[in-house]
Structures
1.
Amino acid sequence: MKKSLLVSIPVIIIAAIGTWIYFAANGSPWEKEEINEIVFKQLGISDSDLKSKDIVWESKSGRYEVYLVYKDEPNYTYSYIHRRELDKILLLSIRDNHTDQDIPKGKHDSLLNPKK
């Protein structure tokens, strides 16, 4: 009994540490799905509006970045971040896929800040 207890406690501790390291490095798959829903809801878009979508965990910043390429602007990649404390999606940049340079404006940059 004591021997199995001495073996099982370190195994549980190692499993817990391993799980924590995995989520710190890769993010939570449940949170990634939640971010996906938040992006579509806050931007008012659907999958049919997009050419591609990539949601990436940035372990340095501890948040997800969302990269969208719209069908009507296939040459630009829009980068968004999710700010948990604000529960908002914020536009980081718009990048020209050919020149790899940021551009100041795009067709979809006003989705988050509608004109009043």
2.
Amino acid sequence: MNKLRILLLALAYACFWSLFVLFPYPANVLPESHASYVAGPVFASNLITLVTMALMGGVLVVFRDSLAERVAGSTAAIVGSGALLLACAAALVASADAGAVPRWMMAAYPAIMALYGVVIALALAAASRRLTPRDNAVVLALSLLLSFLIGEVIVALTDPLPTGDISNPLMFALSSIFLVILGHIGCDAPKAPLPSRLAPSLSGRAAVPATAILLCYLLGSGAFMSLSSVARGETWFSDGWIHCAFALVLYPAFCLFTLAAWRQRRAAFPWLGFFILCIACLYCTALLYSPLAVLCRALILSSRPMAITLLWVAVQEGMGARDLPWWLAAVAAPMLIVAVDCAIHTVGLIGLSPGQMDSVVNAVMLVTAFAMTLGMLWFVRLRPDGAEPASSECAAGAADVSEILAAMADAHGLSEREGEVLGLLYRGNTQKKIAERLFLSVSSVQTYAKSLYRKLGVHSRQELIDMVNEAANGNDRAR
């Protein structure tokens, strides 16, 4: 059942990412090709989306956890917002075919899309809190690969049909279907979800530069894809075999990385490796994109969805470390992505010629690449895991104890949460401190402690500490 929940949640996330990667309007309503590109409607759409999300965030702030929990668990809200989005998209397509699209409909569509996006974001964040951190890491990595595959299938199936113009909104709305199925099969799950972080390997301090780096990359790469005459009009699922090759290397590699960490009983994301890839991509695109336009375009198309996924993680982790509500992070991440799109299309309003626009885009990419380089140095100095630099001897000792604790947990059949509590108890944390670290109630920590004491055959913290120390001494003698 847990594997099925992971798959359904990954599918829901996969369709959710398309909200921020694909062109929002149906294909026959507002073309995105270079010849017919007009910045005004795109900027207005992004602005309406951003304002609507901000208003919904304000409503959530007023009503706090009660409203967020109700929306996240409401099948009516999830299905209703998805159906409303598809109905509005169908009306837009019909109006465009008739030759006239009302202005109010052009304005209502992005507002409905924002409403749908916030509802789905809340539902996804709430569902993720029921999984362990390492399961969440696997879900997010798997969602990228599934998103690409689902998009290719939808395009292949709908393009020959008269309904091909609505393929993008159709993928948006699929999230609601997967979440409804997930809710029905999860009726036997605990009603009070475990509020764990999505990426505990990233400290609260390191989340700030990580968020800044990813926003810079989305700005620079988005300017290239939206405004450059070389790349404008290209879409995620239809850029030829080079783009497919990049995607089918990058996304499986991401999955393998998180699976390897999962086997080591931890959650991890390839932060530094991806930052280096993004910086190199921007520098190469700015300096070499004329002779290597196809290669640069394909690499950016593949990497932008991964940047959005990691931005979601960084915002969740950073705000969680500051004890901010889970639902606030769920709304903040989409708002940041839409705000970047607004900034990009603001440049398009200037009305420059294609040659001038390409020069501006190059400058934007170079500046953002340099800013990302500085941010990466800041990120490395803070250390992603939040630990302070230690001597090699201390680091080796800490690694040995961690291995012993993991081995004890496996040998005695401890759950993942019990293993976390075991490590924190051994290191001298009080139950109150453990509750704060793991975002649990004190009573839950007490329950986990009693359970692991019983499984280990000890009756107190001191006996537990002695047991671990004896195992460590045994390892030292064996050496």
3.
Amino acid sequence: MTFATSTLKRLNELQHQHKQAILVEEFISGKEIVTCFLGNQNTLNCMEIVEVFNEDDDNYLTTNFTS
């Protein structure tokens, strides 16, 4: 069984088990930033930008930016 075939099989199993959509993302190395937006068609506000904290790395800092 190829990697693609086994991955699709596992995704189908998860979707059947949880009865909802599955989101698959590509891993990109580097800092992870999470943003929160609030708004509608007319206005969009960036509420917060957060750099994800890694508890296993003592030299890693958490940075929060709020508007």
